[in-house]
Amino acid sequence: MNKAVIAIIVTYNRKELLSKVIDAVSSQSYPLKKILIVDNNSSDGTKDLVSHKLSPLIEYKNTGGNFGGAGGFYHGFIEAEKYTYDYLWLMDDDFMPTIDCLEKLVSNSPRGITQPVRYNLDETCAELSPLTYDLSNPFKINPKGVPLNKYLKDLVEKPEYIDIEAIPFEGPLISRDVVEKIGYPDPRFFIFCDDIEYAIKAKRMGIPIKCDLRAKAYRLLVNNQSNDLLSWKGYFMLRNLFYLHKKYGTNVFIRYKPVMLSIGYALSCIMKYRFSQLPIIWRAFWDSSSLNNTELYKPGVKRK
Asked: Which Pfam families match (predicted)?
């Protein structure tokens, strides 16, 4: 008996990429129960594009505002509750699965969370999910451990599955019992770390998180977060990372590590004459306890 799978695709102003993603998801060798397109109020004609693809399989939901990836998936989870399902399959508008990606993910009726392996269009491995996510060691600047793409380079014999401790919301298959235990993603994150928090909650509940090396997908855009820190996204990267340390740090040193991270990054910006970053660092630190001021730092908002 086939398991009922609902795909949730969150999009914002990338209709050309979205069209490719919809076609790839609609063509899966494993039949989907529903494809939910969650549109963060795009202004590039996304609604018109999707209207030509609507069918009993595909449903369109406009959130009425730009709520980021976190808010988009939050709305997607709510929409999915209108149906009975065994799994949710999450992705954004630049994740393109191969035709048998879902078939591989579902094949062993996994419980918990199962992530496919992402590749760039040039076939280089783009799967950055870390084997560990350490919120106990205050001496680690980055809690992310070895990323999967680096780990796989050193493996001679590759298993079917590898245990990981963090996921992106780019392709994970999440079983219904996980949703019932954890609930919905937190929309307050807007972008960044909503997926990591979901994985942290899963890990602490003893829910398995695995990467299925047989399941393959492509990223239509190259991931380049090194430039994001200096863009409007930098505020959210810092604020949300600080929040994870404060809320999920296993000791007092981790919970206060955002202080040192803020000071260190501020000094780095001063040395590089990036003085405009200083108020952003301060605001991100101040807001990280409650994840507020999202509206102030959304793209296109003029700040005083």
From this structure: Glycos_transf_2
